[in-house]
Amino acid sequence: MYSNCRSLLVGFGLVFSAAAANAAGLLTPVSASDQLLDLQSHHVRVVINNGFARTEVEQVFSNPNAYELEAIYSAPVPEAGALSELTIWAGERVLQGEVVPKEEADRIYEEEKSQGNEVGKADKNAYQNFEFSVYPVPASGSVRMVYSYYEPLKIDTGVGRYTYPLEEGGTDDEASAFWTLNDVVSVDFSMEVVLKSAYPVAKTRVPGYGGKVEETETGELLYRFESQGAILDEDFVFYYMLEENLPGRLEVLTYRENEDKPGTFMMVMTPGVDLHPLEGGADFVFALDVSGSMQGKLHTLASGVKKAIGQLKPEDRFRVVAFNNTAFDLNRGWVSATEANLRETFARLDQLNSNGGTNVYAGVHLALERLDADRVATLILVTDGVTNQGIVDPKAFYKLMHKQDLRFYGFLLGNSSNWPLMQLMCDASGGSYRAVSNSDDIIGEVMIAKNKIVYESMRHAEISIEGVNTHDVGDFKIGKIHYGDQLVLFGRYEQGGRARVSLKARINGQDEVFSTEIDFPELATAHPELERMWALDQVRKIQVNEMAGFVDAGEAKVAIRDIGVAYQIVTDETSMIALDDAGFARHGVERRNQERVAREVQARQAYPNSSGAQRVDSAQPMYQKRSHSMSGGGGALEPWVLGVVALGGLALLARKKSAGRTAKGVALAGLVALGLATGDRVEADTYYGPRWTDRDAGVARSESSIDQSIAMFWEVSEDEARVEPRRRPAPVVSYVPPPRECHPSGYVSQVIEYDDGRDTHKVDQRRNKGSSRGHFGFNLFNAIPVFDFVWGEGHLDETDSYSGRVRR
Which residue of 97, 161, 183, 256 pairs with 232 in a disulfide if CB–CB is 3.0 to 4.6 A? Predict the structure, then answer.
């Protein structure tokens, strides 16, 4: 037996999917007896252009019934998406969208619907979803709908990320109980991404999708994927990594229609400063959800926490706080990461039970107790932000976080998550959070999180602009800037001219100033869509300030409504109503959006090669150092960080979803585990291409890069390793791991017995690969057998027997 056949899995990844979530799709009341409307086609076209993206979605709905029906389509809200266009083709009529106050849109829609007229509407339901209503879809007929939105994009540690959200977050149980969702595209699906970058792109990644990326004649990168039908239950995530050693820089995009109107700017700041790893012992507190939704997952959760804190250094201290209706400290205060303290904590973790609601405030409040001002403290919070017990007033959260001096990092899990609350907590503490999709790349998320936690940050950071009168800007008092952060700020300016832009911050106890001079143009007409993104930024600012108690709720509502109507964006207080010309005339709706869309279309046609935000400090560099990247000194990926991110994966599992795609997440978790299991450390400078080999000469040897391996792992998990959900051997209540025999030929055998709380299972596992290429087998948390993977020119034969026989 070869000891290296066993894998040490430090933690699940954030992409460990709790499968078969509610997704984007057509909604039908549960009680309805109609045949479901058919979503025939779904085509997405995205242009990523140096700091922002435009997404256009085109769909065709068909009605198989012998009578008219209303179509209601739901899709998750992109966190910073400004919905700006809606066009519906109903027979020979073309309906176009105009943004009006929400109550007015509701009234017009119902009036037109009651008269049998063609009408459409787009609503935003808080942070959860966009809802599109179309009436009528004719009997045995179809309608076509196109909508589009803009959103700013950040580069984080040299890596850009675009997400097209499809998977629902499972945070609206009432809606799930009322609606039946049809998320199947019956005929054709396509995804197209055009990437315009002012800087060389080293790598691109599209986890879970096929397709390929090609360079066009104009130097852009073009990705395209097509399929005959699809299921809209997984997010599309597009990664692009810039070349290494890029300079710290300042980029600006401006729009000013004429001299009679104020200009709008988007400022993209990528600091180039030396930030060093933290030295000495540090304090880490983990906040764990043990509410009723964790039923059946606590065994795995406890195992993940054990692995995480088991990797801390002896000079580090830790606490584990769990919360449901209330919160409790498993360690009753800070404890050092000694063997005795680890054993005691492990025993207490094993005694946890899942029950009750979710009291996030109680968990955070207890986690922040007993902080030592002389030590660096880090709070890691994993949540979807949905609070249903205890104190739920956002003002209390702001007050709680504002008085603390700590490093705060949050994982906001899934779509439809409460980003306003997480943003408020970050604003109060100077922390940061990462919105994480189930389709995200685990390696990238872990590397980004690790660098922000273990490197020093810029403190008391503040931006100023002198020489040009600016107003209605984002918060220029930044607070903390973490390793790899890129700042995206919006504002307005009265007149063009020369301005000095400065960033002041304290780094390692020393006050530093970084500055440059730039020109704000008198006229700039290439990007009128910039006004919509600025408007949405203002709305988000008002929402967070209202939650914190800085703005009266009534005043905030009026301000958000007025901004939405003036700049034609859908908000919580505005909706988009779609009518023909006669309909708008009947209801006296001013055609503001028609004029705005015409300007945007004209600008795209007049400036087809416009490159978004461009560097403006080349002549007088704002920074003398290069910007941070995945290879810029991240060092080795500490195993404990994988344990921290494991909590994110476990929380995702706790969401109320069925279990259809679990294998995919396990495969990705295994990918991370393999790099550690074989003794090789995953280095930061090999984000997209670390290699590993099995050290034991008696075991089949493999060398394969992560991008190749991920694709193969996904292929295995999607096609070969599917398990009948009703017979999955989980949750495991008790389990005794037997020895696992690996042979140089690649043959693997193992017999296991375990109890899942309902049945006792005896599993006879036999696997055989068909070539001498690479082979990996690993156990989850060094205990629970998961999968064996084989790639190369070969095949995977695997038979498991338990309570019957299942072929994977």
Answer: 183
3 state DSSP class of 370: coil
- Cβ atoms of 701 and 719 within 8 Å: the answer is no
pLDDT, tens digit, for every residue of 550-568? 889 899 999 999 999 999 9
Cα 118 to chain center, whole Å?
Answer: 36
- Residue 449: per-residue pLDDT: 65
CA angle 594, 133, 70 (to 5 degrees): 130
Q: Which CATH number fits domain 283-438: 3.30.420.300, 3.40.50.410, 3.40.50.980, 3.40.50.920?
A: 3.40.50.410
Closest CA to 493 of 251, 268, 250, 253: 253
| Residue 654 in tokens | 């706790």
List all residues 6 or more positions away from 576 whose beta carbon is below 8 Å from its beta carbon. Answer: 83, 86, 97, 98, 99, 100, 105, 121, 122, 570, 593
Query: Hey, which residues does 459 pair with through a beta bridge?
Result: 506
DSSP-assigned letter for residue 716: I
Whole-number pLDDT of residue 749: 43
Q: What is the model's pTM?
A: 0.71
On whether the CB atoms of residues 787 and 665 are closer than 8 A, the answer is no
Q: At 466, is the pLDDT very low, low, confident or very high (cuts 50, 70, 90)?
A: very high
Residue 278: CB atoms within 10 A of its CB come to 15
For residues 3-30, give the mean pLDDT: 37
Are the C-beta atoms of 251 and 616 separated by less than 8 Å?
Answer: yes
CB 139 within 8 A of CB 65: yes
Please tell me the distance from the alpha carbon of residue 590 to that of residue 606, in angstroms, as a whole number.
Answer: 26
Backbone angles phi, psi at 7, to 5 degrees: -110, 145
CA 128/CA 168 separation, integer angstroms:
8
Q: What is the dihedral of CA 578, 179, 236, 662, to 10 degrees?
A: 180
CA distance 84 to 148: 6
Domain boundaries, the chain: 3-16+658-807, 283-438
Angstrom distance (rounded) from CA 696 to CA 742: 11
Residue 718 pLDDT class (50, 70, 90 cuts): very low
Check residue 447 and give its pLDDT: 56
- Per-residue pLDDT band for 324 (boundaries 50, 70, 90) equals confident
144 neighbors 129 (Cβ within 8 angstroms):
no
CA-based torsion, 77, 442, 191, 28: positive or negative: negative
Give the least confident one: 341-355, 573-587, 719-733: 719-733
Burial class of residue 775, CB neighbours in 10 A (0-12, 13-18, 19+)? buried
Owner of token pair 């977050």 = 169
Q: Each residue of 160-181: b (16+ CB within 10 Å) or e? A: bbbbbbbbbbbbbeebbeebeb
Using one digit for the tens of pLDDT, what is the confidence trace for 260-305? 999 999 999 999 998 988 777 888 888 887 777 556 545 655 665 6
Residue 467 has φ and ψ, to the nearest 5°, of 105, -25
**Residue of 521 and 641 predicted with greater confidence:** 521
Distance in angstroms (rounded) separating the CA atoms of residues 631 and 246: 11
Residue type, 785: P
- Residues 6 or more apart whose CB falls under 8 angstroms from that of 240 comprise 48, 159, 160, 195, 197, 201, 203, 204, 205, 221
When pLDDT is cut at 50, 70 and 90, the band that residue 172 belongs to is very low
CA dihedral 74, 385, 150, 213 (to 10 degrees): -90
Cα separation, 250 vs 515, in Å, equals 10
pLDDT at position 314: 83
What is the pLDDT averaged over residues 328-336? 91
| Among the listed residues 611, 645, 591, 505, the one whose alpha carbon sits nearest the alpha carbon of residue 15 | 645
